[in-house]
Design brief:
yeast vps74-n-term truncation variant fold, three-stranded antiparallel β-sheet, 11 helices
Amino acid sequence: MTDEYRADLPSFPERVDHHEGRNAEPTLAEDLLLLLFQPESGTVAGEGTLFYVLAGAVLADLGLGGHVRTGTGRLGGLTVEAVTDNPPSDHLLRATWEYVADKPRGVQTVLAASGPALREPLLERLIDRGALRRRAGKSLGFLPVTVLEEAEPARRRMLLAEIRAVLVDGVEPAPRIAALAALLYGSGTLPQFDRDIPWTSRVIMRAEALKDGNWGAGATARAIARSVTSLIVSNVIVAAAVLPRS
């Protein structure tokens, strides 16, 4: 990777300040990573496609907030550009917004450029919020390792319950939950949640509808944000499909 290419990549803070980490509303990417964290094993589901779906969650958040809009590139691909008079206040979202504020970029380019740097700062946010914690452990009985574990289960349980209500019970989702459910489906990890969200043909059909932007009548007032977000989520699924699942 050349120095010129490195300089063109978005720059994400490794940690956020105490106030932003604990008191601000969690970003979509934080909630997605929290859902993907598996308390029983201390691992994150879908590591093989994780950077794409986390980057997609950041873009979806920007879409829901009206911070970005989509367009069409010279070769017909989907592009993202910043709404210049509406920057996000969140520092992590701001990094991606500034990346596309420089010039419109293809969605796949943004996913590949921003995704690899997101996992650690998002984990730090979840730890700062008290949702997760790190502790010292041992591998093979003697090798020192750092282990992630659940510290406070309330938010993860709430998110799972809201997604289950949408996918299983057919409840009309809030736009944010619709995007989160679609991203979880796009990550390829939804079958791993079978204990909480049965992996049935009905659930798959519902998730497909959310991925396509069919969020229900209540989302009409946010039609533009819904359209932008569904396009982004669809591109995440296309990108993730070519990667090995883990």
